[in-house]
């Protein structure tokens, strides 16, 4: 397929119709544009969990395929990058010191929350098990400490009593 | 030197065009009794197809047994790992192949069975996922591969690490390396890579022909695969400039402080392998 002369960016998101042909086309745009063609990924999640322990490939896999072929790094908009927090904070009057980030994933939700100065709360109804957190907590590596939440709950329903409901 | 190992794409030919003087070089090597063998990361073609390609492009006397492609060597690797010492193919579970008919044929020829695409889960577990050059790669196949890889006993193997390949019009096409990166990310596993710069293909060559590395030269066009392969196998290396790598890249590696970079610097370089012909008379 011929290249559209107006294209200035390649955006990689979740694409269940991803194919070699599309990967090829992305590579052609990136080579044609060089640094003038942006390479952006929505997020780096490796897997989207399904019931029963199964999972489907996440956007991160497709971003990696494009990055490898083009031999350049994508700008990632999603967590743990703080771009989305900055979007929220610019629209709403947020005081990080009085805001809690609630999530189930350490390397996206909790890391972003910690990086943005929010209080972080991990819920165990998703991908993360408690021993994973303990592993990071006990580690000597400071980078891993950024993955440790301030609090955790088994489920966000556990927050109801605290609200006086 | 007693013999030479040649990479193919960008060394002997570019697309459908033989590098001028390359067929003559091989002919002169044959006549002076020096061995010429071929080692290619390209996993698209079977060695039988490659034999026909050599002939079609004007290279005489090259037989399939002289050609070591990553397709062939991946099949041999899987046969070794799935069948152990001896035994026939029916003993091993199927292999899920992400690749074209050339690669699939080599896997079958090694006595292994292929897992079907788009079929319900087979009655027995898939024993390996093999990632090659797959221009029919889709999200659905990626998801299918990941399903098989949930079993820790299922091997993840890649034919080669190449991130892209040049096309004759100056464009690039994504390589196996980019597809492997997707599978590794989704499965959380690291692939066993058969092709250059890893040394398995050299083991295949030694097993068949008993080559002495100290008297063998490796000739290639890609620093990160061919030249590093030569270094890893104990071969002296020649970079030819008719393919992927530019002289400036080799110079940059030479100027680098990192020890790893030094391994990517060839012993010699030529503008084209035709430049080796005069040296044969010495």
UniProtKB/TrEMBL annotation, chain A:
<dbReference type="GO" id="GO:0005886">
    <property type="term" value="C:plasma membrane"/>
</dbReference>
<protein>
    <submittedName>
        <fullName>PGP phosphatase</fullName>
    </submittedName>
</protein>
<dbReference type="Pfam" id="PF13242">
    <property type="entry name" value="Hydrolase_like"/>
</dbReference>
<keyword id="KW-1003">Cell membrane</keyword>
<dbReference type="GO" id="GO:0005829">
    <property type="term" value="C:cytosol"/>
</dbReference>
<dbReference type="InterPro" id="IPR023214">
    <property type="entry name" value="HAD_sf"/>
</dbReference>
<dbReference type="GO" id="GO:0043136">
    <property type="term" value="F:sn-glycerol 3-phosphatase activity"/>
</dbReference>
<keyword id="KW-0472">Membrane</keyword>
<keyword id="KW-0963">Cytoplasm</keyword>
<dbReference type="InterPro" id="IPR036412">
    <property type="entry name" value="HAD-like_sf"/>
</dbReference>
Automatic annotation (TrEMBL), chain B:
<keyword id="KW-0206">Cytoskeleton</keyword>
<dbReference type="GO" id="GO:0005829">
    <property type="term" value="C:cytosol"/>
</dbReference>
<dbReference type="GO" id="GO:0005856">
    <property type="term" value="C:cytoskeleton"/>
</dbReference>
<keyword id="KW-1003">Cell membrane</keyword>
<dbReference type="Pfam" id="PF13344">
    <property type="entry name" value="Hydrolase_6"/>
</dbReference>
<comment type="subunit">
    <text>Homodimer.</text>
</comment>
<feature type="binding site">
    <location>
        <position position="196"/>
    </location>
    <ligand>
        <name>substrate</name>
    </ligand>
</feature>
<dbReference type="Pfam" id="PF13242">
    <property type="entry name" value="Hydrolase_like"/>
</dbReference>
<dbReference type="InterPro" id="IPR006349">
    <property type="entry name" value="PGP_euk"/>
</dbReference>
<dbReference type="InterPro" id="IPR036412">
    <property type="entry name" value="HAD-like_sf"/>
</dbReference>
<feature type="binding site">
    <location>
        <position position="221"/>
    </location>
    <ligand>
        <name>Mg(2+)</name>
    </ligand>
</feature>
<dbReference type="GO" id="GO:0032587">
    <property type="term" value="C:ruffle membrane"/>
</dbReference>
<dbReference type="GO" id="GO:0004722">
    <property type="term" value="F:protein serine/threonine phosphatase activity"/>
</dbReference>
<keyword id="KW-0963">Cytoplasm</keyword>
<feature type="active site" description="Nucleophile">
    <location>
        <position position="7"/>
    </location>
</feature>
<dbReference type="InterPro" id="IPR006357">
    <property type="entry name" value="HAD-SF_hydro_IIA"/>
</dbReference>
<feature type="binding site">
    <location>
        <begin position="40"/>
        <end position="42"/>
    </location>
    <ligand>
        <name>substrate</name>
    </ligand>
</feature>
<dbReference type="GO" id="GO:0046872">
    <property type="term" value="F:metal ion binding"/>
</dbReference>
<dbReference type="GO" id="GO:0031258">
    <property type="term" value="C:lamellipodium membrane"/>
</dbReference>
<keyword id="KW-0663">Pyridoxal phosphate</keyword>
<keyword id="KW-0460">Magnesium</keyword>
<protein>
    <recommendedName>
        <fullName>Chronophin</fullName>
        <ecNumber>3.1.3.16</ecNumber>
        <ecNumber>3.1.3.74</ecNumber>
    </recommendedName>
</protein>
């Amino acid at each position: 397929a011929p290249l559209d002369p107006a294209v200035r960016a390649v955006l990689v998101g979740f694409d269940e119709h991803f194919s070699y042909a599309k990967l090829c086309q992305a590579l052609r745009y990136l080579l044609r544009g060089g640094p003038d063609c942006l390479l952006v990924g929505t997020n780096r999640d490796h897997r989207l969990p399904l019931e029963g322990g199964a999972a489907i490939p996440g956007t991160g896999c497709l971003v990696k395929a494009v990055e490898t072929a083009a031999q350049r790094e994508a700008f990632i908009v999603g967590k743990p990058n703080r771009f989305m927090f900055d979007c929220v904070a610019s629209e709403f009057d947020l005081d990080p010191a009085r805001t809690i980030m609630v999530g189930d994933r350490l390397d996206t939700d909790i890391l972003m929350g910690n990086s943005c100065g929010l209080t972080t709360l991990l819920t165990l109804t998703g991908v993360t098990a408690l021993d994973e957190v303990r592993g990071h907590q006990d580690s000597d590596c400071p980078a891993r400490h950024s993955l440790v939440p301030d609090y955790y709950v088994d489920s966000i329903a556990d927050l109801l009593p605290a609200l006086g409901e | 030197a007693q013999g030479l190992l040649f990479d193919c794409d960008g060394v002997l030919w570019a697309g459908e065009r033989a590098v001028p003087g390359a067929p003559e070089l091989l002919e002169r090597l044959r006549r002076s009794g020096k061995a010429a063998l071929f080692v290619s990361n390209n996993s698209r073609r079977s060695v039988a197809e490659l034999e026909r390609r050599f002939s079609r492009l004007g290279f005489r006397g090259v037989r399939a047994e002289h050609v070591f492609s990553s397709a062939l060597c991946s099949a041999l690797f899987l046969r070794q790992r799935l069948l152990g010492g001896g035994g026939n193919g029916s003993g091993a579970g199927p292999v899920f192949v992400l690749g074209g008919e050339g690669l699939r044929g080599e896997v079958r020829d090694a006595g292994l069975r292929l897992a079907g695409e788009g079929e319900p889960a087979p009655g027995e577990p898939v024993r390996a996922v093999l990632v090659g050059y797959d221009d029919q790669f889709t999200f659905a196949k990626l998801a299918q591969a990941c399903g098989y890889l949930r079993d820790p006993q299922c091997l993840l193997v890649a034919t080669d690490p190449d991130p892209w390949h040049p096309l004759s019009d100056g464009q690039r096409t994504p390589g196996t390396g980019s597809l492997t990166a997707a599978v590794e990310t989704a499965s959380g596993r690291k692939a066993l890579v058969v092709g250059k710069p890893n040394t398995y293909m050299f083991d295949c060559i030694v097993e068949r022909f008993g080559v002495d590395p100290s008297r063998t030269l490796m000739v290639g066009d890609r620093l990160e695969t061919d030249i590093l392969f030569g270094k890893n196998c104990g071969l002296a290396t020649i970079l030819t400039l008719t393919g992927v790598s530019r002289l400036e890249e080799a110079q940059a590696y030479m100027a680098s402080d990192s020890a790893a970079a030094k391994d990517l610097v060839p012993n010699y370089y030529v503008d084209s392998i035709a430049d080796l012909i005069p040296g044969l008379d010495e």
